[in-house]
Amino acid sequence: MSKIATLEIDGNKYEFPIIEGTEKELGIDIKTLRTATGGVTTIDPGYKNTGSCESAITFLDGEKGILRYRGYSIEELAEKADFLEVAYLLIFGELPTAAQLEKFDQDIKEESHVDEDMKKILDGFPKSAHPMGVLSSLTSALIAFNPGSVDVDSEEEMYDAIVKIMAKFPVLAAWTMRKRKSLPLDYGDSSLGYVENLHKMMFSRPNKTYEPNKIVYDALDKLLILHADHEQNCSTSTVRIVGSSHAGLFASISAGISALWGPLHGGANQAVIEMLEAIKADGGDTARYINKAKDKNDPFRLMGFGHRVYKNFDPRAKIIKKSADEVLGDLGIEDPVLDIAKGLAEVALEDEYFVQRKLYPNVDFYSGIIYRALDIPTEMFTVMFALGRLPGWIAQWREMRLRKEPIGRPRQIYTGENHRDFKPVSER
Ligand code: CMC
Predict the structure, then answer these.
(1) Residue 25 confidence (pLDDT)
(2) Bridge partners (DSSP) listed for residue 67
(3) Which of 126, 162, 179, 327 yields a CA-CA distance of 20 to 30 A from 95?
């Protein structure tokens, strides 16, 4: 029997259906709230209690620490799948057959170049520009070189747009890094896989033969998979809301990159390493920083700790912590910053402040340590996150358009001045 929620305002009762998801989550469907009540709205800053859509892409249970893409556990995908397979799964809903995967890979390779004039735009940026700003601008600029809107009712047009952005995005990301390092741009090599080619475009040197490295590829592959989607987070909600105005895929992704940049979201991975470095430079006194994080008069927060949804543990952090140990071991790297991170986590996990508020290490806490071991510069960390999140953004944009969702347009409760008469400047 379907469940009903009853709301009472000034003695008047209103009923709303409760919808149930496939994992038994309940949501009060308030679509008719304003019409039924004559204009009453809800208020929920930060959308802590608001479901913005129904979605069949990613399931996460913050209490139990569960994360699944299209029903498959993140642990199993990180272990057994590669990034392109996961991208296909997220975007199209099923794991690809060998033929589908081969076609996806080949189609992406065909499109893995950007217009030469994009280089002029890249050249216009100062070397000091943050790669996330450059990446967002270049992604937006791609629209000028690939004009025309996508007919979302045409499977073919939708597929072409998806392949184009999957193909060109790694080129732009790699080029933002090379520009910062004053290295000549690399056009990649279509005999390499998606992740291998990304690595080559980032790291090849003009005077050296590019050496493949399986340990590095596997580590990158795993990190990209772990970041590939996370349901309605800040950047994904941005992509969906921008796309809901029928702005194109590239414009929506560019907006998502900007949303991801902030230190409370994807920018946390850069902030974590900067914090760990600062603690190291300050003599490694983790207790002092734990106290700073707890002090309400101090703006300092323990970066890489806490999550809006996970209130037990972040399953991605668990996998990444183990992977950090393995990758550093395999590459023969000792990083004192990893010890500081572990020390910090140990103290925080026992501390009443963190325990009470259910603050655990999140995906960003250990990922930077692996990126460092792979020689990726700190200011590129959030770009790596964006590279991983790309298929998630695409999948969510596609779902939103195929479901013909209405334009995103929240309401508000106005708390400003009531009507007043205009005074000419001479009377103010
Ligand atoms: N250090 C110290 N205190 C914290 C932290 C932290 N990292 N995170 C939350 N708190 C405290 C906060 O001060 C508040 O305390 P009180 O109840 O006494 O006022 C309580 O915990 C609840 O925090 P909140 O800010 O209301 O929680 P939220 O759900 O709005 O924010 C968050 C979630 C991830 C933005 C926040 O935990 C945070 O700023 N963490 C550090 C930044 C970070 O690591 N972000 C990456 C998130 S995971 C990857 C991603 O989404 O990109």
Answers:
(1) 95
(2) 60
(3) 327
Query: Can 113 be counted among the known catalytic residues?
Result: no
Least confidently predicted of 108-112, 151-155, 302-306, 384-388: 151-155
In the annotation, is 364 catalytic? yes
Greatest extent of the chain over all pairs of C-alpha atoms, in Å? 79
C-alpha span between 194 and 186 (Å, rounded)? 15
Residue written as tokens 């790309």?
390
280 in contact with ligand 1, CB cutoff 6 A: no
What pLDDT, on a 0 to 100 scale, did the predictor assign at position 426?
97
Is the pLDDT confidence value at 1 over 70? no
Alpha helices, H only, 295-351: 315-331, 336-350
301 lines ligand 1 (CB under 6 A): yes
- pTM of whole model > 0.85? yes
Mean pLDDT for the chain? 95
Q: What atom in ligand 1 is closest to the CA of residue 307? A: 34
Sign of CA dihedral 149, 153, 158, 160: negative
Q: Could you write out the DSSP letters of every residue in 90-104?
A: HHHSSPPPHHHHHHH
pLDDT score of 387 more than 90: yes
Mutate to test the pocket of ligand 1, among 232, 261, 274, 308 (most ligand atoms within 8 A of CB): 308
Question: What's the CA gap between 97 and 191, in Å, rounded?
Answer: 21
Q: Is 308 in the pocket of ligand 1 (CB under 6 A)?
A: yes
Q: What is the pLDDT of residues 125-167, one digit of tens each?
A: 999 999 999 999 999 999 999 877 788 889 999 999 999 999 9
Nearest CA to ligand 1 atom 30: 308
Cβ(314) – ligand 1 distance below 6 Å:
no
